[in-house]
Amino acid sequence: MNYKIRELDIFLRVSDESSFSAAGRALDCDPSTISKVIQRLEDRLGVRLFNRTSRALALTQEGKQFREAAQRVIEAIEEAETAVGCRDRAVDGVLRLNSSLAFIQYHVAPHLREFLGRHPRLRIEIVLTTTPVDMFEHQIDISLRGGYIPDSSLVARRIASSRWIICAAPAYLQRAGTPKTLDDLQSHNCLNFLPGSFRSNWPVRQGDDIAGFEPKGNVSSNSPDLLRWLAIDGLGVARLSHAHVGNDLARGVLVPLLERQAVDVEEPVFAVYASRRNLSPRVRAFLDFLQERLSPSPMEPVPPPQPRQDARRHEGRATRRLRNSPTRGGAAPAASTGGRGQ
């Protein structure tokens, strides 16, 4: 059994590096030995795992499927080892996260108080960007991204999925009309992600087929927050994550459109990190926590945070002290309601 685990480890390293030589250097092993292990694995499985060229190796379709299964096996082994051998290691130090403002605000921030309550010696630094950054240059421990992660030497662990909705504000629909078909939508102002983004084409159903709809409009952006704000303001039609606009839909601020044609695509959400091997306790703890809180099911909108009971009591006491405190002139101050003035 041990040699099979070793084979999986070698296979994953080769798929990460796309090279027998690079994998050999990483594993301190001769490239010819690496090649023989892969050949033996392919012979036993009866499929080709890599397409070999003079420049590099590329996973076949079977190789990609095998990689997903192999990653799950290795991660399960490491989690078991951690549960038994590393449970007493402290979760402390600094954990650096990278993601978009929208993802952090709607899916991570609501759970941070609970996570940090479990690990009071941990500090978290959050680097907000609209696109992924070089994790090594910026010393990022975990990057949280939606969509499909390009092949790389990084490890991508699926932690959740999100549904996407075509929607618009009632004020816009009253002014421009409600699109009933895709042909109708062609004449509407669509607020979209920047050209070239994998989200700039909207997947829609045409009969039994799924096609990419190319929306046309006068604003595009890499910020889902901006597109949401513009849609609520009545500028046009947008396609946004249900987890992002679910509360707006529930309140009637936005209205779902073309629900039969709009394909209910579940976009995967990944936690991306540098290596499966020797994860620090803080990285592993956060990955497990995200998996626990988000789960692979489609993410739902989180209600905005409410003041805690003890915070409200503290605020009430502070207000009473303020009202009972004399001013310099001896008169009690007027209570403010937050208005513009008298």
Please describe what this structure looks like.
This protein has 342 residues and is an alpha/beta fold. The protein has three domains: 2-85, Winged helix-like DNA-binding domain superfamily/Winged helix DNA-binding domain (Arc Repressor Mutant, subunit A); 93-153 and 274-294, Periplasmic binding protein-like II (D-Maltodextrin-Binding Protein, domain 2); 162-267, D-Maltodextrin-Binding Protein, domain 2 (3-Layer(aba) Sandwich). The chain is 42% helix and 20% strand. The chain contains eleven helices and 13 strands. It has helices spanning 2-17, 20-27, 31-45, 61-85, 101-118, 170-176, 182-186, 224-232, 242-251, 281-294, 309-324, and strands at residues 50-52, 57-59, 93-99, 122-128, 142-146, 155-168, 190-193, 202-206, 209-213, 220-221, 237-241, 255-256, 266-273. Strands 3, 4, 5, 6, 7, 10, 11, 12 and 13 form a nine-stranded mixed sheet that branches. Strand 1 (50-52) and strand 2 (57-59) form a beta hairpin. Helix 2 (20-27) packs across helix 3 (31-45). The protein is globular, with a radius of gyration of 26 Å. The N and C termini lie far apart (80 Å). Residues 325-342 have low confidence and may be disordered.
Quick rundown:
With 342 residues, the protein is of the alpha/beta class. The chain is built from 11 helices and 13 strands.
